Amino acid sequence: MKQTEVTLRVNKKERQATVAPRLLLSDFLRHNLHLHGTHVGCEHGVCGACTIIVDGSAVRSCLMFAVQADGCEVTTVESLGSINKLHPLQQAFWEEHGLQCGFCTPGMLMVAIELLSKNPNPTEDEIREAISGNLCRCTGYQNIVKSIASAAKKMRAVTEAAA
Amino acid sequence: MKPAPFDYERPATLAAALALLKNDSGTSKVIAGGQSLVPMMNFRIVRPDRLIDINRISELDYHRIEGSDLVIGALCRHAALKESDLVKQACPMMQAAYEWVAHGPVRNRGTLCGNLCHADPASEMPAVVLAADAVMLLRSSETKRSVPAGQFFVGQYETATADNEILVEVRIPVARKNQGWGFHEVNVRKGDFAIVAAAATLQVAAAKVQAVSIALAGVGSHAIRLQASEKALIGRNADDAAFREASAAGAVAIDPNSDIHGSAQYRRDLAKTLIYRALCDARDRCG
Predict the structure, then answer these.
(1) Which residue of B has its CA nearest to A111?
(2) Can you say how many angstroms the Cα of residue B131 is from the centroid of all Cα atoms in its chain?
(3) Pairing outcome for strands B63-66 and B28-31
(4) Which residue in the set A43, A58, A134 is minimally distant from B42, CB to CB?
(5) Which CATH number fits the domain that encloses residue B68?
(6) Which of A138, B39, B175, B287 is least surrounded, with the fewest CB atoms within 10 Å of its CB?
(7) Cβ of residue B46 closer than 8 Å to a chain A Cβ
(8) Cα(A25)–Cα(B12) distance, rounded to whole angstroms?
(9) Measured between beta carbons, which residues in chain A are less than 8 angstroms from residue B111?
């Protein structure tokens, strides 16, 4: 089957590759770009672990083909922070014990990023609604909800201080 | 969990997409949001030779009022409809039903038309478009035809769409001022497919039922209208007794399956209760 050329921006960096049409975007990120932060759980759109942001919207990267992302702006968990300088959301997950095994965390972080970009002051119900498509088998969700609420509060404080 | 190989086309216009499908014998698949198709491809339940990606056909990304219809194009995403003030006014039943449909990231990408073409027997939107008397606009490179929702769903994951056609638009009559509606569902977890869902619309004049629609999802191979129950309600007082009779008759008329989520009898019981609740809500919302 014909290979296709794609050009896209991933975490603000332009990337070019020649890919088979059947290559999932999740596999493209992990195998071709070696961005292993995006986790692959169920590969049929149920678990949410592979959630990334494409052109401003959170989507499942296992339900998109890399060819479909041609020309798109893609943001993965690697864009958030580094080991030495965590993003406030990652910091909050650490402080509030929002993870145990960590498998669901990249997806949780990316849906939370989308939520907080649209709604800086979400209620608990809105947080639960936002993460409802992401499965966690360790935490029972309580600490994930707490983490996102805590991050929202800190991020609002920073925004307000800057204003 | 990887799809079988396929060729990929990304036409820029509807005309180009239809031209690609012109002599197709069912080996190509049209992909919009891909939220149902890609999982099936990952499982290799579906193995198209070629995907025709309509995501860049911006002329199909719209929803607007045209005359007395809310019209929704093939590329209009669930998320846009769920948040739309236009939908809120023209088809509030659809907006309420969206509370039950999938999760944010799936709604960000999935489309209404793709969802209808997938025709999952337990999906909410087929029941909504049935109850709302929607019409499907199907186009091929040479033809254009309108198919009422009642004739669109023909089997499990099967619609009236031919191999060379695309569902380009759904037309939903704008809800009349005096039309009430109800939507009820029971499922295992939020965002799951329905075990049973019921959608109803109602118009009442001088306390009598003037017009009514009742649709169910999850009770057979595809979403259905309960025409016998509807007919029996016309002219009756819009009261609890009439609704109880209609919902009991509806539960007898269906032929649901048993599966891990519930037995056929449980689904009948749910159908009876959910139809009743949907009708009561519809009456309470009649203007």
Answers:
(1) B105
(2) 9
(3) unpaired
(4) A43
(5) 3.30.465.10
(6) B287
(7) no
(8) 21
(9) none
Is residue B167, in this structure, part of any structural domain at all? yes
Which pairs count as long-range contacts for B235-242, CB under 8 Å and 24+ apart, including other chains? B235/B208, B235/B209, B236/B208, B236/B209, B237/B207, B237/B208, B237/B209, B238/B202, B238/B204, B238/B207, B238/B208, B238/B209, B238/B283, B238/B286, B239/B207, B240/B280, B242/B209
Q: What is the pLDDT of residues B81-106, one digit of tens each?
A: 999 999 999 999 999 999 999 999 99
Summarize the confidence of residues A85-109 as an average pLDDT.
98
pLDDT score of A1 more than 90: no
CATH fold for domain A4-79: Ubiquitin-like (UB roll) (3.10.20)
Distances from the Cα of A131 to the Cα of A46, A55, B104, B191, angstroms: 12, 20, 8, 11
> What average pLDDT does this structure show over A63-67?
98
Q: What's residue A163's pLDDT? A: 81
Backbone φ and ψ for A65, nearest 5 degrees, come out as -95, 150
- Nearest residue to B186 via CA among B197, B177, B175, B176: B197
Residue B111 lies in domain: 61-173
**Fold of the CATH domain A88-162:** DNA polymerase; domain 1 (1.10.150)
CA-based nearest residue in chain B for residue A67: B8
Phi, psi of A156 (to 5 degrees): -65, -40
Residue range(s) occupied by CATH 1.10.150.120 in chain A? 88-162
pLDDT interval class at B1 (50, 70, 90)? confident
Q: Looking at the complex, report in whole angstroms how far the Cα of residue A31 sits from the nearest Cα belonging to chain B.
A: 14
C-alpha–C-alpha distance, residues B18 and A2, integer Å = 21
Tell me how far apart the alpha carbons of residues B132 and B67 are, in angstroms, rounded to a whole number. 16
Task: State the residue for tokens 């191979």.
Answer: B221
Give the span between the Cα atoms of B8 and A68, in whole angstroms: 10
DSSP summary character for residue A105: H
Q: What is the pLDDT of residues B275-286, one digit of tens each?
A: 999 999 999 999
Closest-CA distance, B106 to chain A, in angstroms, reads 7
Report the chain A residue with the minimal C-alpha distance to residue B101.
Answer: A133
Q: A88-95 and A142-162 are packed helices; what angle lies between their axes, rounded to 10 degrees?
A: 140
What order do you get walking across the sheet with B28-31 strand by strand?
B7-9, B50-53, B28-31
Q: Where in chain A do CATH 3.10.20.30 domains reside?
A: 4-79
- What is the pairing mode between strands B28-31 and B7-9? unpaired
Residue B8 pLDDT grade (very low, low, confident, very high; cuts 50, 70, 90): very high
Q: Could you give the number of structural domains in chain B? A: 3
Query: Each residue of B210-247: pLDDT tens digit?
Result: 999 999 999 999 999 999 999 999 999 999 999 999 99
